[in-house]
Design goal:
two-stranded parallel ribbon, seven-stranded mixed β-sheet, globular, homotetramer
Chain lengths: 298, 298, 298, 298
């Protein structure tokens, strides 16, 4: 059975999704593409499964409306495009945490580094477009909710457009008291580099760097750092679609990030932007109670 | 367009191929499966593209007959299932060698380790079933032909069925004078472990271990070693089929290992078995001249 | 020439110093040992070179008095026992930072983990006894002064004596705007583990783990984590004394951490304790202006 | 007590030894230096402890005469300068092998790479001056004797003086059937690089690379490779002398490599040179029975 897919929005990521659904993923066919971005809640109301790139909505209120439409329908229809949950390294890390091998998590140290960003990238996007990936994947890894956020700004790099605060360090606390520090540095120059280390009561688990040949030449042992997110997370994007298509083909609800997760990410990134704009105040995250409809945190 | 595929032989690897073509790879459909293994040359004669698991043939003579049938047809029809050429690490290594970053290759150090083998695995299979993967991928990596082979036998492990010579060390020389040492150890107990390091005039390039989370606990920093070839080379199998299906869909000749490569592998493994059985003599590899039909070595 | 050394204080570290000066370091002899800890300022006033284990003084005021006595004498007499400046890894990191290879420093991520501490270890000691090593080495690495500190407390590990806040995260800002995050976890169970990564405008430099054999067995590639600070920093302690003895033998001023550095460390650790006890307030560090006597920061 | 030391031979390594004994090692003083290299057996006959740089003797016969003189004296006087036994990595490897963690050894894979050698370095020196270090350390690591050797010559690097066969691959077999392959490449250009991996029935243990900071910049994660043997084995030289001086000060026999080990190394390197000059024949090593005087192999 081939799953028929309509694509709304054919920008950079949309085009890459179309390529992937057509050339890489089995069991799917793109049958319609439109670049008119009508309200997503309307789509959800139509009763079809929706894969929605992040952000689910640009405001928390819009996110709540998507959830209302979905609950009116009676079953989960929406999966949000947080692909890191499908990355093999993060999945191994979750397995290790679940196994208890490193004990109860206490702290997470993260870095999200990107070589450069264009002039159109503004300071709020550090949370909204970049850190949002860690926000989602950490909620999932820890099976916990983020309760406060503080954004502090180191000395800015000279290698940025001058309006941008870069790098930024984000400090999150979770409901269970786990502390997360996240460096976001979007003009780090040297490559695309994702680091994550979870420290538990008995040990720690660290995300691997991607496998790459080691070269010894001219006095140095070197391995290449990925250039961009496409090469770093290409396999995760494949797996994300493969599992989503399989869930639809099986008539099952999607198991990936839900509209609840998309809503939570929006609330948390809003709080991060508020902290940044307030000069680094600690902002309490004001998330609604989790509806039973979305199950327990996974 | 969906490529219709008939599968001949539904043993362990055949069943895994069917699963992969059905569930993982886009653009292909398995439309017939038979477990009767009729002569492959007959199949080739039918004029259809053939993906043939290694070995291409159990004797060099049979391999030559396949090539004759193929040339009679006038274009390449056969691709042999040496999946390592599709592994990301080996491909990076080939790119590095081609780039000249480590200079002209002089030596290659390899290891092929497998946790255990059953009683049915006999000493000749170390070359025929196991080392054959290195034999193919090294011919391709070095763009060179293997000219002699010597098999020496270290002290045998106690953890094997007693009829088996395990481990074995194979020493190859190429037409260009490159020396290759390959440890093959099929009862190494600890995991499935593939190592390859090419040393050139200016430096070396080393195959990476698969990416895996690092865990610190109980006084140790540890990463998991793969358990078996399925987990180690799963992505390579995917890529192998994806590119083969794409070449068929495009009406092009396959670009993977040819029947020539399958024939060469058979001749070289035959020589290795002969060296083993002779107590370690250096055996000259007697490969026919490469027909122009199969192009220059790639 | 053999340098004659009197040792005041023969506790755990004092005894290890005596052993090292006697058995490991050439050109030195311990000629007197007393366990009566008279005022250090008095010793300095006597006009002899002094190697003083950290802390230089238990209060900032006492530290200032040591400096006054030293300046009255007219030349540097005191070296404080911050041994990390003599560790090969930190020295390499300083060389890299000085070379400009990673650009202007913007952030430093650190971790200081210790397997367990006894009941006598109280929460203030996390700054005073443990983090003080990072405080000194980071001032030296960055050639910069720490201007504020904030201590936040993650969920506490269950594997501690209940009076202790463990782990703690310390956030420092420097005069130049560099942001430092330091995890201090003194009951981490798994080993003694020191991590430090400095991120600059063009790249980063990371402290190596100590060299240790890699072992592959039972499905795992593992390397041992050091058990304690003695094995991790044994070579640094050797180098510290060797260079100090050499400076005395040469009649030169010591080049290691000065009484100024000891004073600064006390002021900063006091601020950290104040932040901890205040529930995580940001505390401005109130260091006096650096006297010209102690030169520019190194 | 200070051990008085006379140095015979003040060439490159001799001068470095004098520096080390004077500036680094405690408890020793160099009290006489002569550059006249009289017969070493004479020195041994005088009844004083002798630290003899490798080679113990330039012929096996001279080595036997040293042993006769030593036995006539009635106790061990000679320690030969094979410093690798004092390297922390090799010592860890020996501990792992002794512990049984990787099972009975079956194979060892080694590489000894040096950036360049001068015109005066001739092909026989690959065994005599370079591989001799592996020959000694492997006998000690495995607690086993080398029984045959074969030297094969890959395609030569263009980056050498034309009279030199470089690289060379040496294949050793031990009395217990362990197989060792050793790449010796003395013009590898990129640095000084020592690799050693012992494969046992249950796993393997690998020598670590020296600890060095990791740098991420310009798309690469890099660590420096040592430039030369002085930086790679500096600590091993220190430890070698420290333990030797301590054994003398204690009036004990030296525990390092004995004149028996020096003799064995000479016989084995002679066999390697013979194999090289014969075009790669397998040469049986003709070592005399080990005298009880030198104890069991350690």
């Amino acid at each position: 059975m081939t799953v028929q897919i309509g694509v709304i929005g054919a920008g950079m990521i949309g085009q890459d999704h179309i390529r992937r659904l057509t050339e890489v993923i089995t069991g799917a066919a793109v049958t319609a593409v439109t670049d008119i971005d009508r309200a997503r809640a309307t789509e959800v109301a139509s009763g079809k499964p929706v894969f929605c790139e992040k952000p689910l909505a640009t405001t928390a209120e819009d996110g709540l409306r998507v959830m209302e439409a979905e609950r009116a329908h009676g079953r989960r229809l929406v999966q949000v495009g947080f692909m890191r949950r499908f990355d093999a390294g993060y999945r191994q890390m979750k397995d290790v945490l679940t196994s208890g091998a490193v004990g109860t998590p206490l702290m997470v140290h993260c870095a999200h580094r990107n070589p450069t960003v264009p002039d159109s990238y503004v300071s709020a996007m550090t949370a909204q477009d970049t850190a949002v990936h860690e926000i989602d994947v950490l909620r999932w890894l820890l099976d916990d909710e983020i309760s406060s956020v503080q954004v502090i700004t180191p000395r800015a790099t000279g290698k940025r457009f001058s309006h941008l605060k870069d790098p930024q360090i984000m400090l999150f606390e979770t409901a269970n008291g786990v502390r997360i520090d996240l460096e976001v540095f979007v003009n780090c120059q040297y490559g695309y580099d994702i680091q994550c280390e979870t420290v538990g009561e008995d040990g720690l688990v660290r995300l691997p760097d991607p496998a790459a040949v080691g070269i010894r030449a001219a006095g140095l042992h070197g391995t290449a750092v990925p250039r961009d997110w496409k090469s770093r997370f290409g396999d995760a994007f494949d797996t994300e679609f493969r599992e989503w298509i399989a869930s639809i083909a099986a008539g099952a609800e999607p198991t990936g990030p839900s509209s609840w997760d998309g809503y939570a990410a929006t609330v948390i990134t809003d709080a991060a932007v508020q902290s940044l704009e307030s000069g680094g105040r600690i902002i309490t995250v004001d998330i609604k109670p989790r509806p039973a409809f979305y199950g327990a945190a996974s």
